Structure formats: structure tokens, C-alpha cells
Amino acid sequence: MSKSISDWLEEFTHYLEYEKRSSAKTLETYQRQLQHVFAKQLNISLDEIDSVFVRSELARAKLEKLKPASIALRLSCLRSFCQFLVKRGQLAANPAKLISAPKAEKRLPKNLDIDEVQSLLDKYNPEDDLAVRDNAMMELMYAAGLRLSELAGVNIPDLDRSSLTLRVTGKGGKQRIVPITKLSLDKIDSWLVCRARIMNQVEDTALFVSKQKKRISARYIRERMKQAGIKSGLTNHVHPHKLRHSFATHMLEGSQDLRAVQELLGHKNLSTTQIYTHLDFEHLAKVYDQTHPRAKKDK
């Protein structure tokens, strides 16, 4: 008896989890997207999964008024599933391989200016243990340009005090070593004193913990940073990714070294980092005018 689509979807999930070592978040995304595709057509045969089927799914997503980025995500998940079926000898070719998703409008990341960062990081109550923790968290995120998941996953042994560096575990479990500031380490040390009181000899390597003596979640960090921004009087909504964007923009502005910023951010492709050059175009144009032999202006 041949397997049903449900069987193949289950096998695909197993493949992602155990062979590709995909994260729980990635698994959830694939399952949610493919559920949308096949929910009402579980009796479809593999022979019916062709380019016409793929295009019809994209058209349906458009009718559902999904944004281009969401349609692209759905196509990507369907393309990966089809490629899996090719590897398993169930499809002769991937019908989604040559089909393009609608181009998404590229939105420039918003960042805080340097004065706003100073205001956010310098205003906190040193007598409040959780305020000390939150401030150390934000200082570290801005010092190292961390992703939210990377910040939540930091362990105490990841800190190297002698070299002022931090071992970061990024996407796909890939590790990188990034420099941190002396100020961020000083604030972490202040937090460690508070942390010791909270943990009360409970063993845990997580650097940032809650009053419940557990590693804090990404969702909790997001909410705490939002509240910190409000307390600092910032009109800009503060969230973890905005601090990472601010780090990238300010580093690029100061160094003009795109490759170095790419390494610090843990970007696999330089094209991902290049979006920050748009934010700093005015500054880059000024540098260009001042340094290019054919662009220098008469004064």
C-alpha cells in the first residue's frame, strides 16, 4: 500500500528533525506552512504535485491576501518538501524549483541613534535586581550585536574575561567568538551579584535567569526590553532586533568594513549584511566624495 501525503509529511518532519537537525522553531514553521497547503487535499496523489499545483497554491495564498514575504516562505517550505520527495525517489523532479515567489518590498531595518542608545543603557535603577539584569542584557546585546535567541542562550562559561570575548551559539548551532566591551562585562558582574541572591545556590549555567531561577525566554526578554524603552522615555519602540540593527549600523558607520560586520553578526551571506549600507548611505556618500580621486570637490 502506497503512503499517503500525511505519511510523507510525517516522514519529512522526521527527516528535518533527525537528519537536518533543524530547530524546533524551524520544524514548527514547516509544519504550519505545509498544513496550509495540504489541509484540504490530503487525498492528493504524489503524481498531482506538479508545477500547476505549485502555482495554484501561490495563487491561493495571494487570494488569502498573504504578504509577498509570507508567500515566499510558503513556497520555500513546499520546495523543500518536494526536494525531499525527489531524494526519496517519489518525484522525478522538483516542480517548485524554477517557480519564483513574488518579490517582497525590501524594508530597511530601523535603528536607534547613538543618543537614544545612551539614554536606554544609562537609565536604570541599580537597586532593583531585575533592572540590573535587564540593563546588563541590553548592554551585552548592543556590545556584541546578538540575535535574541543568542542572548537568551548565553551561559556564564561563554564569557572570556581575559580577552573580553563571548562565545556565541548562533543559527544551526554554529559558534563564533565576538568581542565585548569592558562596560558590558562590568554590568554583567553587577548582575552576577544579584543573580547569586536570586539563585540561592541553585546550580544553572544560564547567565540571564528569572526570579523562578530559570533561564529567561525570548518572549520575556522582548517584553522587558519594551518596558525598559518606555521607562527611558524613548518614542521609538524598543525590541531586541532593533538593538542588533543599531549595533550593525553604528559599527558600519564607524568602520566601513562590511566583511567585519558580517562576521560579528554571524551572517552566512554578505548580502544579508549589505542591507545596512542603505541605512548609512549618506555617510558613505560623504566618505566617497572625500576620498575617491575622481569625486573630490574643489573647496
Defining traits:
299 residues, mainly alpha, DNA polymerase, domain 1, hpI Integrase, Chain A, three-stranded antiparallel sheet, 13 helices, elongated
- CATH domain class of the largest domain: Mainly Alpha
CATH architecture of the largest domain: Orthogonal Bundle
- Unreliable spans are none
**Residue share in helices?**
55-70%
Number of domains in the coordinates? Answer: 2
How would you state the average pLDDT, rounded? 84
Largest sheet: 3 strands, antiparallel
Number of helices: 13
Alpha-carbon distance between the two ends:
83 Å
Question: Can you tell me about this structure?
Answer:
- The protein is mainly α and 299 residues long.
- It is built from 13 helices and three strands, in the order αααααααβββαααααα.
- The chain has two domains: 5-87, Orthogonal Bundle (DNA polymerase, domain 1), CATH 1.10.150; 114-287, Orthogonal Bundle (hpI Integrase, Chain A).
- A three-stranded antiparallel β-sheet has the order 1-2-3, with no helix packed on it.
- A hairpin with a 4-residue loop joins strand 1 (159-160) and strand 2 (165-169).
- Helix 6 runs antiparallel to helix 8 (182-199).
- The longest helix is centred in the first third of the chain and has 20 residues, at 68-87.
- The radius of gyration is 24 Å and the shape is elongated.
Layout of SSEs?
Layout: H1 5-19, H2 24-38, H3 51-63, H4 68-87, H5 114-122, H6 129-144, H7 148-152, E1 159-160, E2 165-169, E3 175-179, H8 182-199, H9 218-231, H10 240-255, H11 258-265, H12 270-279, H13 281-291
Antiparallel strand pairs: 1-2, 2-3
